[in-house]
Amino acid sequence: MIATLAAVILIGALLGSIPFGVIMSKLFGRPDPREKGSGNVGATNVLRTGGAAPALLTLAGDILKGAAAAGALPGLAGAPPGSLAAPALAGLAAVLGHMFSPFVGFRGGKGVATGLGVLALLMPGPTAWAALVFAAAAGATRYVSVGSMLGAITIPLAGALGGHPPALIGVAALIALLIVWRHKENIARLRRGEENRIGASA
What we know:
Helix content: over 70%
Largest sheet: none
Strand content: under 5%
Number of strands: 0
Number of helices: 11
Distance between the termini: 47 Å
Structural class: mainly alpha
Shape: globular
């Protein structure tokens, strides 16, 4: 079992580290998102620097790699059916791989879409609440960063209120903390009144 978990963690991290933002921007002949806008490889900055098509494909790829890590990978690696540890660890590893991708010099994304893919599979109810919080907060403030952070924090809170297993709540809380930490530059820009609003150009 230990060998299985180690394999799940390693492969999950490699899967999560696929930099779809960079790949899609290159495929569409758009600027490298690391060199424009916020410098982030996630879908929000790809939208700002490259347009809707590469951004949507980046979003889909980032969500799917999180879902694949938590959903398909444990079974392929031989984890026992019904195990919570393997999907949770694989999902967490995918989020960390996305944030610190070795393929782009460890300059990854903020983990929101990949975390969404993981937690939508493991905790669909709390993730649905998080989606509502994200939409309300981003719509009211026009800051994607605000919606993302509040949405991430919502999942472990809703999970705890809904009586989900402590292991899943713990992983969701850790992912939420990582997402907020990765938004530290956004928080600094929000304080200075310099954060890009929805619809702003690069």
